[in-house]
């Protein structure tokens, strides 16, 4: 038992030490690693804009953007010090904090989550209560699905694992799947499918998409965090004004994408006001404490938190004042 306790303590200390460190390269810039949540795509455009335009270097940072994927757990990357910053969502940050991972969201990437479900146009599902009796392909363990089941008292809805493809959707007129409205609808329509979508945020479950760091890193290096936030949000404002240069770079980094697909995604981000409210670029990155409190309460009601969390421990407004 004592050895187990000592191992746990040592592991916890190693997390704090790793997360609190950074290094300076020969160019005098502070080296920072940023873990994204997927392969390079327009949903990351502002960060690549800041990289290509030299906004990070202007702040004295040498930023490396690490591509994500289906098996990369960003929260663990930051907790273990493999990256200083990463992308995620406010619900996941609250869940991680409740599990003992000392993370803190420092700014919003998106004001609203573009996550939703997609069905064929002739589907009888027109609203979330209509999912009763149907099957939905989702990412296993999705908290939003638990929320929908509870809110609409769905008794016979069934979930199956998402495949990260629309092949099954195209083959089955009854298929319903989890999507991002900025992505999968493009491929479905390109393949000739007539579709409809529903946004999860319309149910009242409305997490932010965020970027975050460890609490120890934020405390030890507040200047670095402020610089990263400032440069990133500057990049997002520029990217949403003109994506041309960054989209060309994304094509090089992710040849699986096409220019047409990226234009669709950028337009969807813009039309849906996901990055900031209409005509208000200055609001990029902002948080509303009331929304964080509401999200914590929703998660507590679902009993997905290991223990209650003080919402203000999972995010900070400190680094948004100088954006």
Order of helices and strands: HEEHHEHEHEEEHEHEHEEHHHHH
Percentage of residues assigned to helices: 25-40%
Task: Enumerate how many helices there are, as a single number.
Answer: 13
Biggest sheet layout: 6 strands, mixed
Shape descriptor: globular
Q: Calculate the mean pLDDT score and round it.
A: 92
**Span between termini:** 49 Å
Main structural class: alpha/beta
Could you tell me the strand content as a percent range? 15-25%
What's the Cα radius of gyration?
Answer: 20 Å
Task: Note poorly predicted spans.
Answer: 1-19
Question: Could you tell me the number of beta strands?
Answer: 11
Please render the helix and strand layout as text.
Layout: H1 2-19, E1 23-24, E2 30-35, H2 45-52, H3 55-58, E3 61-66, H4 74-79, E4 85-89, H5 90-98, E5 103-110, E6 115-120, E7 135-138, H6 143-151, E8 158-161, H7 167-171, E9 177-180, H8 184-190, E10 195-199, E11 209-214, H9 215-220, H10 222-241, H11 244-253, H12 259-271, H13 289-302
Parallel strand pairs: 2-3, 2-4, 7-8
Antiparallel strand pairs: 1-2, 4-11, 5-11, 6-9, 6-10
Helix pairs in contact: 2-10, 2-11, 5-13
């Amino acid at each position: 038992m004592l050895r187990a306790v000592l191992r746990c303590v040592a592991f916890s200390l190693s997390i704090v030490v790793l997360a609190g460190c950074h290094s300076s390269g020969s160019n005098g810039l502070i080296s920072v690693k940023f873990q994204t949540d997927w392969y390079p795509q327009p949903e990351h455009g502002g960060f690549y804009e800041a990289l290509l335009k030299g906004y990070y270097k202007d702040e004295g940072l040498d930023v490396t953007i690490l591509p994500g994927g289906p098996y990369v757990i960003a929260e663990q990357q930051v907790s273990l010090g493999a990256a200083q910053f990463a992308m995620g969502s406010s619900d996941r940050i609250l869940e991680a904090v409740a599990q003992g991972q000392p993370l803190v969201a420092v700014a919003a990437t998106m004001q609203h989550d573009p996550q939703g479900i997609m069905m064929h146009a002739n589907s009888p599902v027109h609203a979330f209560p209509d999912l009763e009796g149907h099957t939905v392909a989702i990412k296993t363990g999705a908290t939003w699905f638990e929320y929908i089941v509870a809110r609409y008292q769905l008794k016979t809805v069934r979930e199956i694992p998402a495949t990260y493809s629309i092949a099954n959707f195209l083959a089955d007129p009854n298929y319903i799947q989890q999507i991002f409205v900025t992505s999968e609808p493009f491929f479905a329509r390109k393949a000739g499918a007539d579709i409809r979508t529903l946004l999860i945020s319309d149910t009242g479950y409305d997490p932010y998409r965020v970027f975050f760091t460890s609490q120890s890193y934020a405390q030890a290096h507040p200047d670095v965090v402020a610089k990263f936030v400032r440069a990133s949000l500057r990049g997002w404002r520029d990217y949403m004004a003109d994506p041309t240069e960054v989209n060309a770079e994304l094509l090089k980094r992710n040849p699986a994408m096409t220019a047409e697909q990226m234009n669709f995604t950028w337009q969807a981000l813009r039309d849906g006001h996901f990055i900031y409210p209409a005509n208000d670029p200055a609001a990029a990155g902002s948080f509303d404490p009331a929304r964080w409190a509401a999200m914590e309460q929703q998660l507590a009601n679902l009993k997905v938190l290991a223990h209650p969390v003080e919402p203000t421990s999972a995010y900070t407004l400190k680094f948004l004042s100088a954006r």
